[in-house]
Each structure stands twice: as structure tokens, then as C-alpha cells.
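Hey all, quick one. A colleague (J.T.) asked me to put the adenosine-5'-triphosphate job into the tracker so the inputs and the C-alpha cells live in one place instead of scattered across chat threads. No bug as far as I know, just bookkeeping. Sequence used:
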Amino acid sequence: MTSRAIRTTFQIVLLLFLLLFVYMLDFRLGVLRLLFPAQRELIYQRVTLPTLVIQHMRMVAISSAGATVVGLFIGVAVTRPAGRDFLPLARDLSSFAQTFPPAAVLALAFPVLGFGFQPTVAALFVFGLLPVINNTISGIESVDSRIVEASVGQGMTQRQVLFRTELPLSARVIVAGIRTSVIINIGTATIGSTIGAGGLGTVIIAGLVRNNTAFVLTGAITAAGIAFVVDWVFGRIETLFYDPRERVTT
Amino acid sequence: MGGTGAEARYSVIEFENVSKHYGSTVALDDVSFTVPDGTVSVLIGPSGCGKSTSLKLVNRLLEPTDGYVRVDGTPVREFPPQILRRGIGYVIQSVGLLPHMTVEENIGLVPKLLGRHKRDRSRRAGELLDLIGLSPDEYRNKYPIQLSGGEAQRVGVARALAADPPILLMDEPFGAVDPLNRETLQQEFISIQRKLRKTVIFVTHDLDEAVRVADRIVLMRDGKVVQTGAPEEILGAPANDFVREFVGSDRALKRLARFIVGDFMIDAPSVDRGARLDWNEYRDFEVVYVTDDHRRLLGAAPRNGRAEVSSAGDAMDDALVGAVSLGSTLRDALAEILNTELAETPVVDEHGHLVGRITMTEIYSATPRRIV
Ligand SMILES: Nc1ncnc2c1ncn2[C@@H]1O[C@H](COP(=O)(O)OP(=O)(O)OP(=O)(O)O)[C@@H](O)[C@H]1O
Ligand SMILES: [Mg+2]
């Protein structure tokens, strides 16, 4: 088997495991019983796991979609001639903000936005924004200035240069930024449960409170599994775009 | 350019007292020159003398600090930049191709900007690939990274020609190609230009290239024009020491590359292979050429002090078969003369028919010399 085939097999097995773990109660019970033979309470009863997954992914989807749109817009804006003055600011700000602990962002957001879903999505949005801005800027900046000049020289308008040259050539880097943003948010969204936003954090926190490792692991495994699968999907999406390092084959 | 955008024909390019400053750097200082309709002007000079800057003033990638750049009498700044640029082919070193587009998409770039239909763009790309000597079927769908340096340069030229603009700007178009390929590309460019008659500004570092492709040379130094003229003028009469040094001590030799054998050759004495060769008839000649029934050159019969009559076939030394073609340059002819034991070289046409000869006298006649 080639390494590629091994990877694909692994990914399919993982996806299958995730689906069974989330949707087949008996399967999950079996796995957890194997891991925690001494634990009596293995299944979190108050909310079903599929519901938690949906809550979780809803937060991630909304925040990341917003972060992608706004991040792309900011990244493009500060690389235009008119917005160049703000480029260093945008770059510093996003680097700085990335060093901020997620819990702190949440702590800052909830006095303003209250408890639950909204402040969590807002915090995730802020977090998700940064990799998108960063990668959009560095993607566009890494396009060879001579190629841009050649495009202008052929008679493209500024908009055409952006859409026909700069964005296609930096798409891979930008998608990688979106990927990072989404993956970070899948993990970070678990802390939203501390302020009552639901999601996979709910079962983890319940586990921590009741000293039930099976609960903690249920949430962690599911979140990690989702992150894995989403990462894999993004990996495939990236290959659709131009890669400066790769020979294109016909 | 008129209401129809890039369709209109404009073609004379004029620089009138043009200066360009980058902050405190003076890149161009009061530059004036004219590129006549349908001719090639080569900008040449040491690195940093302002060649690329001059080109970019024509398609408004840069604006002059002072003076005017005109196209057919109209200052370029009166054209909207995008419209102007779509009517001017722009060729730069191989990086100019867009790496995420196929050869066909690259060639179709400007036609697409002009709103041409996909089918027309595709057909046009095919025509141009044929013109530049690349098989359309094979190359259409390749990406720039799959091309050799020479192929990429050809595609760059094809792209510049795609919308059939009357003006071409070429910034060291063959700079990244090895010398052998470069010469082929130059020859292809010359023959394409002979057909299409574009108004071309061509930037190069390479004097041999300039001499080969130029109708006129604009020699620059430190942002100023030092001398303009036909290559043979500049090589024959350098305006000052800088030019003399720039063109090199072999300038007389380089100059020979400007002259075509067909314009200088004289009649060549010849006999048929089967005929008798009577040296008394050829008293004034050191060599008589031997041909077949169709006047195809077979070889040369050198006199070597002989006076007797013999069969032409026997007198012929078939080792002496070197020849230059009608379209070769006097430089090629001189090289051929130095290659053979004879003091001259025969000239043949494309079918190998003997049409004349070049001796050292013709070489000298093209070389300007003072009477001592
Ligand atoms: N964007 C710029 N900013 C400042 N100075 C510049 C800029 N572009 C060019 N120059 C300067 O202007 C001068 C002319 O540059 P230009 O690129 O026209 O030279 P060139 O003749 O094309 O040189 P080369 O043969 O090396 O390509 C040089 O001294 C260069 O350093
Ligand atoms: Mg240059």
C-alpha cells in the first residue's frame, strides 16, 4: 500500500469510528466500558451527543464563516494601495491577538454580550479572524510583484488583478488560514459551555465537575474526531488551488 | 485610439524631453527620441541607465516627472491606462506568464479583457502558437512551469501579439535564455516582425542582439540618450569614447552583421561538371565554381597556378564546398572565408543554386575607413 492509500484508509476508519461513536449508543457504550470498566455512569443523559455536536458545529460554522468573510475583506483591503497604511497595524494586531488566551477573550466578551451562544460565537469570531487575516495578507504579499506588474501591464483593472491574479495565486495560503481558523475554533468552542453556550464542552465540564473521566473523554474524543475530519476535508480543498511549489501535471 | 478602444491603429512613439525622478534618483534626464511606425528601436546601455523605466512610461506603468510620451501625437496620459495597455503588447522575462493559467489562457488574456468570445480566443491562441513554432495541440493546455525557458519566452511574445496591437514593448524578452536558443528566438522575432511590422521598443543588454534586431539603436547612459542611429551608424561612427568603449573594439566585425550577403555579392564564374575548364578563359579568377545541370553548387576548382585545360569534374576539389546563403550577413561570409582555403566564398540560394560570391573586397566595401 502506498502511504497515500494508508492515509485514506486511516481517514475512512476514523470517520466511521466518529459516526458510530456519536450516533450508535451501544457502540459508544462498548468503547467507554472498555476504557473505564470501573465507571458506572458512562453515558451523559441530559442532552444527547448528536445534539451537542450540532450545537458545537453551529457555533463553529457561524463564527468561522463570519471570520472568513471579514478576515478576507480586511486582508484584501490592507493590501490595496488605498489601505496600505493600515497593513502594519493589521499585521501587528493579529499577531498580538493570537497570543491572547481564549478564556480571556470569552471573559471579556460575556459582560458585554451576556451568557450563552452569542458571546461564544463573538469570541470564536475574533479568534477565527486572525489566521484568516494573517494568511490573506501573507498570501497576497507572496505573489511575485513582477507577475502583478505583468498583469497590470496587460491591461487588467485593479479589480481584475485581484480576482484573476492575486487571489488565485494566494488561494491555497488563504484556505490554509481558514483551515487553521476552523480547527482552532472547534477546540476553543468547548470553553463556550462554561458560559452556557452548549456544545461538546457541556459533557466535558459535566465530567470535570462529577469527576467522571468517561464524560470528559466523550467530549474530547468527539471534538478531536471532528477536528480531524474537518482538517482532512480542508486538506483536499487546498489541493484544488494553485501551489507554487508543485509541478502541475496535465 | 478612437471610440472603439484598442481596435484603432496608432504607432509612432515619441519621447519629448522626458524626465523621470524616483525621489532624489534621476532615472531619466531630458530624454528625446522617436520610434517610427513599423520599426524596431532597441534601448541599450549599462544596467540602471533607465531602459525599463522608459518602457513603462509608454504603457503608463509609470508617469513621467516631466515631458511627454506620445503615441501617434497624443500624449499617453490622455488614454485611460487599461485601454492604452490592452492596445500595447508587453513582453517581459519569463516570470511574466501567469503561473496558474495554461498557455492558451495566458495567450487569451488580453482578448478576454477585450471581451472576445472563448471560441475566438482559442482559435487565436492556435494561430499564434503556430506562428511562434509551437504545436498548438501539444502546448495549449500546458502550464508555464512545464515549458522550457525558450518556450516560455515564445509564449510571452504570442501573448503580447494576441490582440494584434500595433505596438510592442519588450523588456529583455530573451534575457533568460541560453545563447544558442536566444539566437533562434531573435531570428524568429525578426521574421515575425518582417510579416507584422509592429512598432517595437526592445530593451536589451546584449549588443549583438541589438545589432541583429534593431532598425535603430538608442544608446543610453545614466538616464540620458548618448547616441541614436541605425546600428551600422553607431558601430561605424561612435559619437564619443563611451560609445566606442561600449560597442567594443570588435565593432567593425559586429557591424558586418548588419549587411546582407545578397546586397553585396558579385557574379561567380562557373562551369558545368561535364564541361571542359579552360583556365585561359578565366584569367582573372583564382577560383571557378563547378555546378550540376541545374546550377546547383557542387564544389570549387582552385587555379593553384594551373594553366592547362581539364575536365571541370577533375579540377574540382569537393572539399571546398562551403557556402553562405543569400540571407546571411557579411559577418557570416567573413567567417566562411576564414574557414576555407580560398579567399572568397560562394553564395547559394535556398535551393543550393550558385548565385554569386563574396570576396574580401566586398567585405571591405561595407567597412567605413579613413583614407590614409
Ligand atoms: N521603483 C524605483 N524606485 C527608486 N528607484 C528606482 C525604481 N525603479 C528604478 N529605479 C532606479 O532608476 C534607475 C533606472 O532604472 P531602470 O530599471 O530603468 O534601469 P534599466 O536600464 O532597466 O536597468 P537594467 O538593465 O538593470 O534592467 C536605476 O538607478 C534604478 O535604481
Ligand atoms: Mg531593466
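Adding what we noticed when we looked at it: Residues 3-238 of chain A form a domain with the MetI-like fold fold (CATH 1.10.3720.10). Chain A has ten helices and no strands.
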